[in-house]
Amino acid sequence: MNIILFGPPGAGKGTQADNLVKDYNLFKVSTGDLLRDEIKKKTSIGNKIKSPLEKGSLVSDELINNLLEKVVSNKTYSNRLIFDGYPRNLNQVKDLENLTKKYDQKISCILSLNVDLSIIIKRILGRKVCSNCDQTFNDFFNPPNLSNHTCDSKFLQKRTDDNEETIKNRFATYEKETLPILNYYSDQKILHQIDGMKEISQIYGQIRGIIDSIEAWLSK
Ligand code: AMP
Q1: What is the mean pLDDT of residues 11-39?
Q2: Is the C-beta atom of 58 inside 6 A of ligand 1?
């Protein structure tokens, strides 16, 4: 099944997507990660998107659609994708519908993580990503320690857009451009609301319950 993980920046989409990848043999496609990778490799796309990313604005739908088509068209991932951070506006919803139609796929489930702004700020300011193993930690909620992380601490880095100034812009962009997507999906039975304020394992418990019941239903 293909899943969309929906929610504001810092809602924990990436963390929950990583849990699902481990347990359900799925692949995560995070448009944010794809874009950061372009910047890291200093590609021509990377140079173009550095500034909007650091400001917390969205990059062009065309660019995102081109990156996404490479993933959705890949048969290895067919109907096994978790979209993290995509779609981000109504144009991208339409683009995704076109891509899924073109490559004979289907979105089975949209999980919407609901989190208050005060928690989002803490999650974003505390976030650290290991550039060696790609694991994400949080100084407040899930600090790296000897039992959960074996890489050297020099690899733990903060994202350049995880600062107080950019958080406000990212959240404003989310409210203006991304939130309206929920109205669009609200009358479809595939939309599930998740309380994203709980602990990581409790949130994942809710998600597992939903995914297991969809799997059981699909296998009937
Ligand atoms: P994220 O890692 O999802 O928080 O995304 C980080 C940044 O990448 C966002 O603030 C945007 O600048 C850009 N970005 C990520 N996904 C998208 C998308 N689907 N459409 C446009 N811009 C995106």
Answers
A1: 95
A2: yes
- The string of DSSP codes covering 187-218 is TSTTEEEEETTS-HHHHHHHHHHHHHHHHHHH
3-state SS class at 136 = strand
Helices 117-126 & 164-173 angle (0-180, nearest 10): 130
Q: pTM of the full predicted structure? A: 0.91
| Cβ contact 120:9 at 8 Å | yes
pLDDT of 186:
87
Residue to probe by mutation, ligand 1, list 4, 5, 28, 35, most atoms within 8 Å of CB: 35
Sign of CA dihedral 192, 197, 203, 206: negative
**Of residues 136, 171, 177, the one with CA closest to residue 157:** 136
- Quick: pLDDT tens for 101-113: 999 999 999 999 9
Q: 86 CB less than 6 Å from ligand 1?
A: yes
Each residue's pLDDT tens digit, 161-190: 999 889 989 999 999 999 999 999 988 889
